[in-house]
Amino acid sequence: MTSRIEIYEKRIEALERQKEMAIKRGKRLMWMRLLSFAAAVAALFGLFAISVVAAVGLSLLLMGLFALVATRDVKNQRLVAYYDSLIAICRNEVACINGDTSAFDTGAIYFDIRHAYTYDLDIFGDRSIFQLLCRASTAKGKQLLAQRLQHPLKREEIARNQQSVDELANEMEWRQELQAVATEMEADKENLTSIKTWLTADNDGLSSFGLRLMVVGYPILVVGLMVLWGVGILNGLVTLSLFPYFIIYGKYGNRIAVVQSLVGKSADELRSYARLLKVVEAKTFRSPQLMELKSRITKSGRQPSAITAEFAQLVQQLDVRNNAAFMLLVGAYIFWDFRVVFKLNRWKRKYQLLIDEWVAVVGEMEVLASLATLAYNNPSWTMPEVAEGYFRLEATEAGHPLIPAKQRVCNTFSITDSKTILLTGSNMAGKSTFLRTLGVNMVLAYAGAPVCAQRLTVSYVPIRTSMRITDSLVENTSSFYAEIKRLGEIVKAVKEGEKAFLLLDEILRGTNSNDRHIGSKALVDLLVESQVCGIIATHDLSLSEAQHTYPKAIANYHFDVQVDEKDELYFDYKVKTGVCTSLNASILMRKIGLKV
Question: Which CATH number applies to 385-591: 3.20.20.80, 3.30.460.10, 3.40.50.300, 3.30.70.20?
């Protein structure tokens, strides 16, 4: 079976060939532009003495050819840039499969140390789950992906999402086209900043009934006065009739200028989004979710390209106000710019909600394409089953998604009957990574994504973690107090009846061993009493004796280490039943020169 890297590399080779052809075509078009322009100049001057008509006619014909070639050349340059984007996309995917995700957004702006699990599970930040997943270029796409990782989908939506991801996983070229077109958009255009400002702004009196009546009726009155003036009647009133123009333009002229500034930028922004929507529009989908998303961009009955073309035409009409001669001779007297603004306001009322819909649809498509890319790049991963009831977790050969496949060690593990798992083990044996493996795959499962496992069945429950605790100078909080606050949130949720799945790593590490044992045991008692399932990783071997008190509610598992005659440590990173009996701290201390 051809590997994904080989597929990407073959695609890069094909795209390089197409790009090279486009570059050669561009060189030919450049020469054609030069020759057609030179020929037009030569025809004009060479034939002018013989026949002015022939000189001008042939010159115009050749300039028309020049314009046609120039247009083709611009399209060809865009095509070269498009091939460059596709090549970069493929190269980034090869790097990603090899463990380098540096080309993708880290999602650092969504970093939240107070979140129930995202900080502990490396969901955002450098070398994070978000960075592994994100292929979105628009701000909305990134925001929706972050929300998907922070807040699970509803259980009934997960299967629907999985179906869409499975369909798009087999559409690599379409996904890359969507990504390439989105990448071409400039940063300010992708956010639709200007048009959002205009759409949400108050019309500032520019749509009032009185103003509209004045704009429509007053020019007619002035024309009537000019007719009367022309026949020698009411001479003085014609001059007086011009004063209302000064009053209206004095009051509203700056407001018109603000609208012109916003919609001028908005036209380019909308055209960029229309290109993205055209990629969605041209695709035939099978899964219900994708078909519904596609239908949302055309529910007005018009294509996005037609709607944006109408808007662009209105913007061009408004820009005519920059022509001083036109405004002095005609425009000002018929309130040309006011009339265009009225049309723009009608366009706004008609399509305002549709623009928001376009942004949302593109964002959703980018999220699904991101998850589908994850599925495509990892064909050995699987779609999980999200089950009802509390609590069930059955994982076959589950691994951590952020560890490259060649270094990844997978584990088969299951929890049933709401048991509390006490996980002991040596330093560096893999306890923390194991906790994150389960937590991260649950987050992916709840996001409708594939998981890093041969098979995974997991109940739909909240996730809470306490694994990575840091102090805060800003909040004047020590690491121990920060952990106490975190555990306090978990204890409160358990006492209030929340049935979450807990992942706790070396809790109460900031206090003495006796207090740590007392606190840990109290927490275990609470979990057993509340029938809340979780895994507690600990070095406190005496805590594992709680299984004798609660034989049906607690199970012991461990990670161990093998030591040879030279005190070299060997880890297999495999979870095993029972309590750990092999410890390595004293060996490590001897290696740094301590006599223990």
Answer: 3.40.50.300
